Amino acid sequence: MLSTAFDWNLDLDFCALFFISILMVFLLRRQILPLRQNIIFLELMGCHILLALADIMASIMLSFPGVYPISMLYMVNMVYYSLRILSAGFFLMFVLAVSGQMYRSSVRLMLLLMWPIVAMLVLIATAPLNHFVFYIDEFGEFYYGDGRMLIYGVSIAYYAMAFIHVYERRKKLKRISRWSVYFFTMFTGIGATMQQFVTPHTQTLSLGVTAGLLIMCLSEENPDVFRDRITSIFDADGLELLYKEYLHYGRYHRVGVMAFESYQEVRSTYGDEVMNVFLEKVGTHIRLAFPKDNIFYIHNGRFLFLDEGDDIDAARRTASEFFKNPVRTSKGDIMLTPCFATFDSKLRPGSYEAMRDAMLLGLKEALKQGDGASVEVTQEMLDEAVHNLEIEEALDRAIAGDGLEIFFQPIYDTRKKRISSAEVLVRIRDEKLGLLMPDQFIDKAEENGAILALGQRVFEKTCEFIRDHDLDELGLDYIEVNLSPVQCMREQLAYEFREIVEKYGVDYSRINLEITETDSTDSTVAKENMEALMSSGISFSLDDYGTGFSNLVNVMNLPLHIVKIDKSIVWAYFNEGNTTLLHVLSIFKESEKEIVCEGVETLEMAQELSKLGCDHEQGFYFSKPIPREEFLDYLKEFDEVV
Ligand code: C2E
Ligand code: MG
Ligand code: MG
To answer: Phi and psi of 225, rounded to 5°?
Structure first.
């Protein structure tokens, strides 16, 4: 055994102690998101602070042999070596948490990974008996044991495992996460090598670890990573991560969301700058009122509280009280009333997305009730949210695979007395949910942008149909395809559609696109798209006239000659004697627009509409939307109906 001369230079240990303590205070002062990875990181920092302290104490005590009791010398050194090995274990656990592996790992795997540490701790604790790691003689002289290198070897193995784990998952991990781990292991490795081989009496390892921890605090563990810029509280990304941990570990929790009545209107009146000052003030108030709680700013003036007990209701009352007074900004006082939705994890949300969407349904209900209402999310709301999510997933599956199907609804020509066109209507055939109708998924597709891919696919299938059939032989002049306002706003739309038409080699005049009148129809992009497609020979019609959006002046200015009157107007005429239909018909007749009446369900309706001068009729009386083969049979069998 080798006795050591205790003339170590402790400057670097003091530096490490000082800097890591400062970093720790810095982290604890900025409330950190209580994610597993962040908690383990704090433990890792705490471990290194204690390690530097133990190192300093052991070095000082061993410099004065005979002064301190031998049991104390043993104790300090045991603590030092235990912390040395534990810090390596914490680092590996931290890396597993960063990569999300901790979620997936079983308890067995964790035990398997941790048993070498436990074995080392046992060896360290029994040092006075076996002298394996170190040994102190009766004069207080310190000796390294043969097992000392084993401690270092095991530590190095843990750092290496952490490094390899991250390297293997480098493609899945964020750049910042990857590089912070690389840097930490690199600095620690350089520090340890220097101490071992170059400057054995200077604690360069402490310096390396400090540099590594500093890099971590500035990158992966930066407490501001999940902080919203305006309100300075946690943001939606942080919520998602923390919530997933709550679900994974099955922690009971309650969630509360606060939103303001008429928030958007107030925002458009006061402008973004003033509203940001408002949000900043609310954020400050919340931070001061609930310093320990997990509170997140989602967006659109919505704040979310995540809590493990019943504090949510107390928080709701405090917030209601606070907003009884106006919030001061440079441009005057802003008075907004908060509404609340609350949620209990006993409902078993199953996923973050389900909780989020159920909360939004609850909030919608609360805002509808107004007057500072608070709505507890019910099982029905959660079921609805889950169902909506399932539909969104089915939509994704349909677009990624081949789940989109087009149905055809015949359109009758009152003068030619035959079916002269058809409208293509999309359906989703899903292995899990069966046949889905457009009103179940078109809105969602428009919201999340999937409508672009969906619309393209429908257009492509329509062109394929036109290519595969002789429309003249079928008696069809053209096929109508619905175009969403979101598609109209896409700059490349005309180019992409023309490419598809060319690919299938079909005649442009065989296609008619149905658009609905919204604010976006007025936009330059939409107009340019229409002009470009029209110049190629595609015709347009206006769909759903009378559903509330259509403005007559705008409609007259649109370069289209077919108007489809919505079924609500047609039904109002037949059921209630409402004469809007007659006015609309006469106006469009005068301006020589062709008219299609939708929702024709009976022979009487068909005959009357024909008498009123309607050019085309579409509705269940003729046929519901049907699949391609059925449609072809229908055309073959169609007799003069009217
Ligand atoms: P729309 O374009 O107004 O299509 C007519 C809708 O009315 C169809 O519903 C059709 O089944 C229904 N309908 C037709 N005649 C009758 C009738 O006599 N009685 C009743 N009760 N209903 C009738 P569908 O297929 O559920 O489509 C609903 C809406 O979804 C469509 O309304 C259209 O706005 C949209 N949509 C359908 N396919 C597409 C598509 O490929 N792209 C886009 N962007 N939207 C689509
Ligand atoms: Mg339509
Ligand atoms: Mg319509």
So the answer is: -60, -45
